[in-house]
Amino acid sequence: MTAATLLFLPPDESLPWRWWRVEGDAITEGEGVPDAPADPAAAPGEVIAVAPADAVTLHWAALPARSTAQAVAAARVVVSDATAEPAHDLHVAVGAEQDGERAIAVVAPARMRAWLAALAQRGLDPATVVPAPLLLPLPDDGYVRADLAGQGVVRGRTSGWADEARLTELVTAGQPPVTLDRGAVQAAVAAVAAAPALNLRQGAFARRQRRAIDWALMRRLAVLGGLILLATLAIDVVRIMRYSLGADAVEARTATIARQGLPRGANPGDDGAQGAQALADRLARLRGPGQGFTRTAAAAFQIVQAVPDSEVTAIDFAADGTLKLSLSVAGEAQANSVKSQLEGAGFTVESGVFQQANGRLTGDMTVRP
């Protein structure tokens, strides 16, 4: 069953608003703006605003069956020759194709803005604004006329306008329009309420879509977000556990290796400090006191080898970590170079008396850590 409320925009602000409520084959009428029902679910369909016939110019033309934007662009070309104002300064709307042609409605943008503002002041935002002549049925021949909410309207097959005696006689060439009875008007209005032939709310005046929040989708997204957070937390926990187990394994292996380096029967202790001290004592015994024989001798031999015409003739490593070097050098400069380089390597060096023999100097140096 068709149900809608037609709200007629008055041609003049001084005139009252009128409305028709269409429910099936019945039409109820009233003045002003109809009161909204207490239960929104009981509202009789969508509110359709009806633009006065004298404010909208209608044309018909064969337009390409493409997108709405392309059809409107073609319609501007069609109406540009029929209007004194530039077509781009007017609001042009295109209707559905019927018998190979489309209805083209032209209205001043200022009137559209004024109508929508007046409707908004009354708490209305209609999805459809229909020119009044398009409420009448398409005649098979000639013209039809009807009174719509106090406004006389005439429609032909490719025309529609506000009924004025001289204008109507001029357009119809003296052929009187057929006046529709109430039943025919009601049937035509019910058909338009179900499927309007043209909607002025296009382009810049199109109704903004209000997107409802899909709470079921929001709940699913929240659940997915929670699962992602839990998965991320689980990954971090597993990574921490792996690091902890790896650190424990490294520590256990280090303790095993340390025990292997301790003397047989030695106890590393609960905190490992006793074992570390025992390991340090054994290392000192193995390498010798001070920096140890190996490290001290290696540093001394490397320095002597780097000084030309210098050689080690004897070494003696004492129990206190002191290394005694017997050197044979070409001259005093080489002896001083060896001494300075040993001191630069972090050792304390005491040089004995060097004696001349067979063209070379021989003497001893004592190297301490």
Automatic annotation (TrEMBL):
Q: How does it sit in the membrane?
A: Single-pass membrane protein
- Return the InterPro entries for the record: ATPase_NBD (IPR043129), GspL_cyto_dom (IPR024230), GspL_pp_dom (IPR025691), T2SS_protein-GspL (IPR007812)
Q: Which UniProt keywords apply?
A: Cell inner membrane, Cell membrane, Membrane, Protein transport, Transmembrane, Transmembrane helix, Transport
Could you tell me which residue ranges the GspL cytoplasmic actin-ATPase-like domain spans? 14-150
Q: Which residues cross the membrane?
A: 183-200, 221-241
Give every GspL periplasmic domain span: 215-368
- What organism, scientifically named, is this protein from? Sphingomonas adhaesiva
State what protein this is by name. General secretion pathway protein GspL
- Compartment(s): Cell inner membrane
Please give the GO cellular component terms listed in this UniProt entry: Gram-negative-bacterium-type cell wall; plasma membrane; type II protein secretion system complex
